[in-house]
Design brief:
This protein has helices spanning about 1-10, 10-35, 40-55, 55-65, 70-95, 95-115, 125-145, 155-160, 165-170, 195, 210, 220-225, 235-270, 335-340, 375-380, 405-410; strands at about 150, 230, 320-325, 335, 345-355, 365-375, 390-395, 400-405, 415-420, 420-425, 435, 450-455, 480-485, 490, 495-500, 510-515, 520, 525, 535-545, 545-555, 580-585. The protein contains 16 helices and 21 strands. The radius of gyration is 35 Å and the shape is elongated. About 35% of the residues lie in helices and about 20% in strands. The relative contact order is 0.09. The chain has about 575 residues and is of the alpha+beta class. Helix 2 (about 10-35) packs across helix 5 (about 70-95) and helix 5 (about 70-95) packs antiparallel against helix 6. The structure holds the ligand Nc1nc2c(c(=O)[nH]1)N[C@H]1C(S)=C(S)[C@@H](COP(=O)(O)O)O[C@H]1N2 and molybdenum atom. Ligand MTE binds near residues 304, 305, 308 and 352. Ligand MTE binds near residues 308, 442 and 446.
């Protein structure tokens, strides 16, 4: 039987089964690691342990040779070794699956020891390795069994029930073997070489008793019916292999997602925000009119609108983060997160707005940002005088094209690291995003920003430009009625109409309201810390029974009143007056 199997399943198939099972082990380990919490992935732990055990001269050589990639090279090396050994295990396990299990066990012990001896190891850290190795070993047995046609199906019950763990064990024990041996310890003794070489030695007498404890009533199918000799089933092996590859891949990707998220959450929690070198002015007492239903002056982070193209929010570890500034500069600059935090930081209240916000829409929010001034950082690189655009790229490849003169004109254009006193939320661009007062988000507010190319509008295009949106996006003055709600009903009598208006970096100087196309009346304005935030407004109204339409319009500090011309958001921002209709009873 052993000989039969050995010759049935070609070596390449064994190698493939070993390789894929190894992949399954790693994928499952990765997935479990993603579930149980931040832990060192076994491959990385083995790599780290290798480094620790490596003599200093070799280490220095590696660092000199591979530079910043030394870690990647190391992990890659561990993976290559792992792949070779896994393939070898697969080849050997064709004959004795027990050997395969043993091989996986050795993997497990090496991986687990590396993991638990890491300085930051915790109690659950071996779980991914153990689960991965067990599932990988099971996968190997399963694949090798699939690779052979003829020992199930046509075999007597005993053989077929060899099922899960034991298909290979039958091989291991040669003639005497019964599938029930299960590869357990008893299966091994006495089942050594001799018998295997003599399939015809079908004497049976010596066969059963020792391993199976009397259960071994049947001999393998091959012994009995010559026509049913097990044959290599390439198709079944390959479909099994495909399944294994899927499991390995899905496990790895999902595990990385989950694990990356946890790692980044942990890193985010660990960030200590420096004090601002230039704190924001204290908010004027009258910045928030505190009217029920009116948007608060400061939008809490959890309520802040979110707009981006990311299906999966980029998880950027601040210790890996760098910001590269290149292009039309005298000397390219690369900053780490630590570098950025060491710069003098500015705090500023800035209202963000999305170009796709409809008149009266929700895509606007105001926060207190903390960050390095973009102009300071850019000046370090030395800007060429003919550059007019910053093409910024996020970790997921999204790009913004920002007019350079706007960023450099002294306004609070920031590489922001905090939002409302909290480390930047991951959804809003952790670890670093841009905030540029006065420009719509799509041309300025790059989240997870990692790269800035100093360039020209006539040479480069940002993400939304070829998709029908204007290359430049200054925010258009807008005003919105928050109370009463559109379509709402209220009681006749004295009431308040209130809302917000914005004209970032110019400032709102006046808000007017009219009801049923009557006279425009001046609303009272809340105070503001500066021209970069929205401004609350309110006006008293004596509501009379019936249906009423309320309209609002703002005038900016340059004296420009919002146009009543309706324009859709594309290509450069909606215009028109916000109107709400209410029922008064
Ligand atoms: N990386 C990245 N940054 C991005 C975007 C994006 O799709 N990807 N969208 C921009 C747009 S259109 C807007 S309006 C703002 C929204 O920022 P917020 O989600 O923090 O409110 O982010 C900008 N920054
Ligand atoms: Mo946007």
């Amino acid at each position: 039987m052993l000989v039969q199997r050995n010759s049935t399943v070609p070596a390449w198939a064994g190698a493939l089964a070993g390789l894929v099972s190894g992949g399954v082990a790693l994928g499952v380990a990765q997935l479990v690691a993603g579930i149980v919490g931040p832990t060192t992935f076994p491959v990385v732990a083995v790599g780290d342990a290798t480094v620790d055990l490596t003599p200093a001269p070799v280490k220095d050589f590696a660092i000199r040779t591979f530079g910043e990639n030394d870690k990647a090279v190391l992990v890659g090396g561990v993976l290559v070794v792992l792949a070779c050994v896994a393939a070898l295990i697969g080849v050997v396990a064709r004959g004795r699956v027990v050997v395969g299990y043993l091989g996986f066990a050795v993997f497990g012990v090496v991986g687990a020891s590396a993991v638990v001896t890491r300085p930051d190891a915790g109690g659950l850290d071996v779980v991914p390795t153990v689960v991965g190795v067990v599932v990988g070993a099971w996968a190997l047995g399963w694949l090798l069994r699939r690779a052979v046609r003829g020992d199930t199906g046509t075999a007597p019950a005993g053989t077929a029930s060899g099922g899960a763990a034991s298909g290979g064990a039958a091989n291991g024990s040669g003639v005497k073997a019964a599938p029930q041996d299960g590869g357990g310890p008893e299966a091994v003794p006495g089942n050594g070489s001799g018998a295997e070489t003599a399939p015809q030695d079908d004497s049976g007498q010596e066969a059963a008793p020792r391993s199976g404890g009397g259960l071994v009533a049947e001999r393998p199918a091959v012994m009995r019916a010559g026509g049913e000799a097990p044959t290599f089933d390439r198709r079944r092996l390959l479909t099994g292999v495909a399944g294994g590859v899927v499991v390995a891949g899905v496990g790895a990707v999902l595990g990385q997602q989950l694990g990356g998220r946890q790692a980044v959450d942990a890193a985010r929690t660990g960030v200590r925000l420096p004090r601002p070198a230039t704190p924001a002015k204290a908010l004027p007492a009258g910045a928030d009119l505190r009217i029920g239903g009116l948007s608060p002056f400061v939008t809490p982070n959890k309520d802040f609108y979110r707009v981006d193209t990311a299906l999966v929010v980029p998880q950027v570890d601040p210790s890996d983060w760098t910001l590269r500034i290149h292009g039309m500069v005298d000397r390219p600059v690369e900053l780490t997160f630590a570098d950025l935090l060491k710069l003098p930081l500015t705090e500023a209240d800035v209202t963000l707005t999305c170009v796709s916000n409809e008149v009266g829409g929700p895509y606007v929010g105001n926060a207190r940002w903390l960050g390095a001034r973009m102009a300071d950082v850019l000046r370090r690189a030395g800007l060429r005088s003919d550059a007019d655009m910053l093409l910024s790229t996020s970790a997921d490849g999204f790009t913004c094209g920002t007019p350079l003169d706007v960023v450099m004109d002294g306004r609070d254009a920031l590489f922001a690291v905090a939002m409302n006193g909290e480390v930047l939320p991951v959804d809003h661009g952790f670890p670093v995003r841009q905030v540029v007062p006065g420009l719509y988000g799509y041309v300025s507010a790059t989240k997870w920003v990692v790269d800035i190319k100093v360039t020209r509008f006539d040479r480069d295009e940002a993400y939304w430009t070829p998709r029908g949106w204007s290359a430049r996006g200054p925010i258009k003055t807008q005003s919105r009625i928050d109370v009463p709600r559109a379509g709402g009903s209220l009681k006749a009598g004295a009431t308040t109409i209130a809302g917000v208006a914005w004209a970032q970096h110019t400032g709102v100087d006046a808000v007017e309201v009219r009801v049923d196309r009557g006279q425009w009346r001046q609303a009272r304005l809340a105070e503001v810390p500066g021209p970069d935030t929205w401004r609350q407004w309110a006006i008293d109204w004596t509501a009379t029974p019936g249906e009423h339409t309320i309209e609002v319009r703002a005038t900016d500090a340059a004296g420009r009143t919002q146009t009543d011309q309706l324009a859709p958001p594309a290509p450069d921002g909606a215009t028109g007056w916000h109107a709400v209709t209410v029922q008064v009873a």
